[in-house]
Amino acid sequence: DADVTQTPRNRITKTGKRIMLECSQTKGHDRMYWYRQDPGLGLRLIYYSFDVKDINKGEISDGYSVSRQAQAKFSLSLESAIPNQTALYFCATSDSSVVGGGNTIYFGEGSWLTVV
Amino acid sequence: QKEVEQDPGPLSVPEGAIVSLNCTYSNSAFQYFMWYRQYSRKGPELLMYTYSSGNKEDGRFTAQVDKSSKYISLFIRDSQPSDSATYLCAMSVSGGYNKLIFGAGTRLAVHP
Q1: A44 interfacial to chain B (CB closer than 8 Å)
Q2: Fewest C-beta in 10 Å: which of A115, B33, B57, B79?
Q3: How far apart are CA A100 and CA B49, in angstroms?
Q4: Measured between beta carbons, which residues in chain B are less than 8 angstroms from residue A99?
Q5: Contacts of B8 in chain A (CB under 8 A)
Q6: Cα dist from B82 to A5, B18, B45, whole Å
Q7: Rounded-to-integer distance, Cα B100 and Cα A8, Å
């Protein structure tokens, strides 16, 4: 089983609908992230959480919200989906907030979301 | 202008070729430089990490950072079909994962 599991892996939803993407991890990491990947734009950070009570906005948080239900679970919600939120979404975890010393960030396999 | 520029490719090479992947950047304060490999329908995985300038080698992979030119490179020697993937550069000022800036990724295809 994957260490970072995202559900659903694929979803088509209609404009205006609420959609939740869920992420769970078995790595025991306290830091979790949600990224969005668009062709030509690379990965952009939506939200991040350094522990259960610590939630922070990333580069592109407008239109999104998150919930850290437990150390191992971090969900991303689109309250009212719009077509330009069609993208590939990644959840990620790390056991440290900084690069180096062997620390790295681990990504899930992604959730394809299409808003029609 | 984007902070990190990366040619999206695709780049197609024969097996055994030396591959050069590059990124340029505009923020001279970047100090942490990474390369991620992303296979189709998978999440990115860290391939190489370099702090500040210089070279780093790991098997067939070499990462180079030229801070004076604001230019980083990833070289793949003796490329294999299994190297076919998208390669993303990423960089950070402070090293924080919440402050990583990614390039758009270069798609590489190595054909037998």
Answers
A1: yes
A2: B57
A3: 8
A4: 32, 34, 49, 51, 92, 95-97
A5: 39-40
A6: 24, 14, 14
A7: 26
- Whole-angstrom distance, CA of residue A14 vs CA of residue B59: 47
The single-letter code of the amino acid at B81 is: P
Q: CB–CB of A12/A59 below 8 Å?
A: no
> Positive or negative, the Cα torsion across B45, B50, B56, B62?
positive
Please state, in angstroms and rounded to a whole number, the distance separating the CA atoms of residues A85 and A81.
7
Q: Is the peptide bond before A8 cis (omega within 30 degrees of 0)?
A: yes
Q: What letter would DSSP give residue B3? A: S
CA distance B47 to chain A (A): 10
Q: CA geometry: angle at A47 spanning A113 and A22, to 5°?
A: 45
Distance in Å, alpha carbon of B109 to nearest chain A alpha carbon:
17
pLDDT tens for chain B, 112 residues long, are 789 999 888 999 999 999 999 999 999 999 999 999 999 989 999 999 888 888 999 999 999 999 999 999 999 999 999 999 999 999 988 877 778 899 999 999 999 9
Mutation site for A-interface testing, chosen from B42, B46, B97, B102 by largest number of A Cβ within 10 Å: B97
List of chain B residues whose C-beta atoms are within 8 Å of the C-beta of residue A92 = 43, 97
Interface of A with B in 60-79 (CB under 8 A): none
**Closest-CA residue to A44 (of A67, A64, A60):** A60
